[in-house]
């Protein structure tokens, strides 16, 4: 059981790291056709897109600052804690 908890925790930490990496990459001018950029984008977009769409529907998103990564990391933290508490 301990191994399952550690694996779940590790999975969510990797997702957090990828989202933070995407935030940092958006601040610096990286080649959007580069392999690292494309990989991080492909792994995080399925997570961030629903939050971005929700914020746009609520009238909060679509501006200069994208709050979807913050909302995604917060939500992933809640989901991680919930899953770990069930195990």
UniProtKB/TrEMBL annotation:
Keywords: Membrane, Transmembrane, Transmembrane helix. The keyword Transmembrane helix applies. The chain crosses the membrane at residues 12-34, 54-79. The keyword Metal-binding does not apply. GO terms for cellular component: membrane. PANTHER family: PROTEIN COFACTOR ASSEMBLY OF COMPLEX C SUBUNIT B CCB3, CHLOROPLASTIC-RELATED (PTHR33219:SF14), YLMG HOMOLOG PROTEIN 2, CHLOROPLASTIC (PTHR33219). Belongs to the YggT family. This is YggT family protein. The lineage of its organism: Bacteria, Bacillati, Bacillota, Clostridia, Peptostreptococcales.
């Amino acid at each position: 059981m301990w191994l399952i908890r550690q694996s779940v925790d590790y999975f969510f930490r990797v997702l957090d790291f990828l989202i933070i990496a995407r935030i940092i990459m958006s601040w610096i001018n990286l080649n959007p056709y580069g392999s690292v950029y494309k990989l991080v984008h492909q792994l995080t977009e399925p997570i961030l897109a629903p939050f971005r769409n929700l914020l746009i529907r609520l009238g909060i998103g679509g501006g200069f600052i994208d709050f979807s990564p913050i909302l995604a990391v917060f939500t992933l933290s809640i989901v991680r804690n919930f899953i770990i508490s069930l195990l």
